[in-house]
Specification:
single chain, Transient receptor potential cation channel subfamily M member 6-like, alpha+beta, 8 helices, about 325 residues
């Protein structure tokens, strides 16, 4: 049994080694290697290196397959794009890590690489030591058939990398990220003492909720907040007229502004009436069963009268009118 297991392990080892030799043989025969270039830094929730462009055929003019030779071939091929000051770093995949030997590359059919600056000590020193350990004798480099533009070295290369954005992140930037846009509303004020409207309006910006929380026969009510001074410490209700209500108002030969001002004037009248009623209750009925700010009363108050009218009927009549 032990001998069979040993033979099985040997067969599996030879099988894996055979799979690795095939791409190596193709690389030396065709003198090209397939490279997928990745971003210098990871991004996104998955912490992956983003792909940069499609896979490319990189000329490979060496006698042996070695990690240092792959890095040298990539540096020479991509020098016109990334600059001569960048160093190639071979990765095991889109999630890394960096490979220190040829055996750590999962598949030579497609090799993933990224380019880092030479002054990045944390990674560049590792890459430099790796190239020294694996330096192999190589034959003189032959000019590739495909000619590239001459490399232009930047005068002052930047030490900071721009943020690597995935395709999904770039697509999100094409849409409005913050859906809570504000609306500017021109407000008039009404002075009950002078019985007059203000001639100048004040502009207030409100962040209005999309869905209404209430709807009546004429208007829809929306919750709103504001950061304008004087309006920022509480929530507001913005009411918008329904289309059917606008048609009815226009039939009465009124504008929306005229109708709204009339509604506000009636509300001010009702508010003044309730404040006056509260004042009279406090002055004339001190020591009797209390009347709360919401104008509720006990059953013993049903027979009270105010200015000749039963109190209960007066309040009910007011509530019906609103």
């Amino acid at each position: 049994m032990a001998a069979q297991w040993k033979n099985f392990k040997t067969q599996m080892k030879e099988k894996r080694a055979g799979k690795r030799k095939a791409p190596s043989h193709d690389i030396l025969q065709k003198e090209v290697i397939v490279i997928q270039r990745l971003s210098a830094e990871v991004s996104g929730k998955a912490q992956k290196y983003s792909r940069i462009g499609l896979c490319e055929f990189v000329p490979y003019e060496y006698d042996e397959i070695a990690l240092s030779n792959i890095m040298s071939a990539c540096n020479r091929h991509f020098a016109s794009i990334v600059g001569e000051h960048m160093i190639c770093d071979v990765l095991a995949g889109e999630q890394g890590p960096s490979c220190n030997s040829l055996e750590q590359i999962p598949d030579l059919k497609v090799v993933h690489v990224r380019f880092i600056e030479a002054n990045d000590r944390d990674v560049a020193s590792v890459v430099g030591n790796r190239m020294e350990r694996e330096e192999q004798p190589k034959r003189p480099f032959r000019r590739a058939i495909v000619q590239s533009l001459p490399a232009t070295k930047a005068q002052s290369p930047s030490k900071a990398f721009p943020k690597s954005l995935s395709v999904l992140e770039m697509m999100k930037l094409g849409k409005v990220i913050n859906d809570k846009s504000t609306e500017s509303i021109e407000l008039f004020t009404f002075d009950l003492t002078d019985m007059a409207w203000s001639s100048q309006t004040s502009t207030v910006e409100f962040s209005i909720v999309k869905e209404p929380f209430g709807k009546g026969g004429f208007r829809e009510a929306f919750k709103a907040t504001s950061k304008t001074p004087g309006f920022q410490h509480q929530q507001w209700v913005v009411k918008k007229y329904l289309k059917s209500a606008v048609d009815i108002i226009e039939e009465t030969k009124q504008t929306i502004e005229q109708h709204t001002k009339k509604v506000v004037q009636m509300h001010m009248l009702a508010k003044n009436f309730m404040l006056k009623l509260e004042q009279d209750l406090k002055q004339n009925y001190m020591g009797k069963p209390s009347v709360t700010r919401e104008y509720t009363w006990e059953k013993s108050m049903d027979s009270w009268e105010l200015n000749g009218l039963p109190l209960k009927n007066l309040l009910m009549g007011n509530s019906q009118s609103t």
